[in-house]
Specification:
Blueprint: H1 3-9, E1 15-19, H2 23-32, E2 36-39, H3 43-46, H4 58-71, E3 76-80, H5 90-103, E4 107-109, H6 114-125, E5 130-135, H7 155-169, E6 173-177, H8 181-190, E7 195-198, E8 206-209, H9 211-214, H10 232-248
Bound molecules: 3-methyl-2-oxobutanoic acid (KIV).
Length: 263
């Protein structure tokens, strides 16, 4: 996969994206044939146990991108730019994007519309493909008043302007997060680059889900826009309980799990 193929998929074939954070999950993504793997800063929530993505550092992203690259040597990997790695200055943004590329990413993702357009232009000029991200942007959760659906009423025009400005700056695709379907459809139809939706309805050019949500690894409720394709949390808990029972009951290890001197 490369950005030219991704651009060609618009309007022809839906694009599949899933997040991955480690060697094992990346390996399975590549085997399954996912179009693009996103090492998202959702790493902070689902792997590191933070309340938001704001605590994620460049070092976290670099380490996990390296692991994902080792697991998926042939996949197209997008590395998320963490909070405060590109907001201070474009120069710092370029330097940090370069670090994610050196860690093994094929592209980087930045949150924001017009605000990041000048940075996007400079990254693209430097040969770094960029994915945009508008709608709900979790790094701005304190600014936008919580995790709320975006693109309603007058907000639609603002999102349309953001999407156009990112396209003009040179992004190869845009994530639309938690956005009303009508607005996501309008944006998708107005752009020549693919939109990738998460909670943005049926008319985006592709979909992205978080690994832990898709596979039911998280406990508790998942948002309405998620489809759980498995319930691994229950399967894992049940396996662990059986293991505990076996060890406590001295039924594991048994004859089949041991080594003998004369073998
Ligand atoms: O960090 C992430 O996983 C993301 C997706 C939700 C698009 O940005």
């Amino acid at each position: 996969m490369n950005i030219l193929k991704i651009l060609q998929m618009k309007g022809k074939e839906p694009i599949t994206v899933v997040t991955a954070y480690d060697y094992f999950s990346a390996k399975v993504c590549e085997r399954a044939g996912i179009d693009m793997i996103l090492v998202g800063d959702s790493l902070g929530n689902v792997v590191l146990g933070y309340q938001s993505t704001l605590n994620v550092e460049m070092e976290d992203m670099e380490r996990h991108i390296m692991a994902v690259r080792r697991g998926a040597p042939n996949s197209f990997i997008i590395g998320d730019m963490p909070f405060m790695s590109y907001q201070i200055s474009d120069e710092e943004g370029i330097k940090n994007a370069g670090k994610l590329m050196k860690a093994g990413a094929n592209a980087v993702k930045v949150e924001g519309g017009e605000r990041v357009s000048s940075l996007v232009r400079k990254l693209v000029d430097a040969g770094i493909p960029v994915m945009g991200h508008i709608g709900l942007t979790p790094q701005s959760v304190n600014q936008i008043g919580g995790y709320r659906v975006q693109g309603k009423g007058p907000d639609k025009e603002r999102m349309m302007r953001s999407a156009k400005s990112l396209e003009n700056a040179g992004v190869f695709s845009i994530v639309l997060e938690l956005t009303v379907e009508e607005t996501a459809k309008l944006i998708t139809e107005s752009l020549s680059i693919p939109t990738i939706g998460i909670g943005a309805g049926r008319y985006c050019d592709g979909q992205v889900l978080v690994w832990h949500d898709l596979l039911g690894i998280n406990d508790g409720k998942v948002p309405k826009f998620v489809k759980k394709y498995a319930n691994l949390n229950e399967i894992i808990e049940s396996a662990l309980k059986t293991y505990i029972q076996d060890v406590k009951g001295k039924t594991f290890p048994d004859e089949r799990n041991i080594f003998k001197e004369d073998e």
